[in-house]
Prior knowledge:
- This protein is an alpha+beta fold.
- Helix content is 31%, strand content 29%.
Amino acid sequence: MEWLKKKEVLKGTLGEEIVLNWFKNNHPDYIIYRPESNKAHWFDFLLTNKKKNKMFILEIKTKPKRVFFNDTGINLNHFQEYLALQNKYKLDVFIVFVDEKERCAYGNYLQQLLKPIKIKKIEYPYFDNNNKKGSGKIVYFPLDNMKILIKQIPENIAKRLNDLSDISIEYQTDFNSQLSIFNK
């Protein structure tokens, strides 16, 4: 299957457009740069504001928070790439999560997401080594460390995102696996 027609790419692209429209409407003084090639890319967008002397990477993840925890996460490999980008090029990385279940978008700078916080016995950021889906390790961040950017995604758009969703059954319902962190 062609890369651009994959469900996860279509869902991600829709999530990106939701957040880009928000940025254009709420921060019109920023210039947005995006990859021109239609293939996998290192990061989603580069935003600049010459007047404010500000430049940062914008990464958009279109996925809901976990069912039993008030957190969400990213693949460890991606996390390490963003950290390397931030450290090597001295550019902040802002990660936004578009949540079709909650019908909102939230996020923060990677530096803020990395601030240690303990919530109900879970120490964040939480590195999950037991991901059953096979996509590798996941790094979870609490929503308490995030800012809500978009309070209400229209229902029809949230439904379209949900239709494109391939969230694993384990991610949604594997309560025992998700609770295993309390047995440590």
